[in-house]
Design a protein that fits this description.
By secondary structure, the chain is mainly alpha-helical. It has one domain. It is built from three helices and two strands, in the order H-E-H-H-E. The longest helix has 11 residues. It is globular, with a radius of gyration of 10 Å. The N and C termini lie far apart (27 Å). The relative contact order is 0.22.
């Protein structure tokens, strides 16, 4: 998915500086986007979007 499309999805969801793992999973399922694609978008955006409340305990 194009970066612009992901930016629009995040904007519509009100996500600016951080996203919770459950939010990422919800976006992944709703828009049929891989979780890794969401993670790459968060990490490559400037400023980065922090991932919080990780279900695996990787991000706090």
């Amino acid at each position: 998915m194009a970066t612009e499309d992901l930016a629009k999805i995040f904007q519509e969801a009100g996500i600016e500086n951080e996203i919770t793992c459950p939010q990422a999973y919800e976006i992944s399922e709703k828009y049929h986007i891989s979780k890794i694609e969401i993670a790459h978008y968060c990490n490559n955006r400037n400023p980065r979007i922090k991932i919080r409340s990780c279900q695996l305990g990787c991000f706090k």
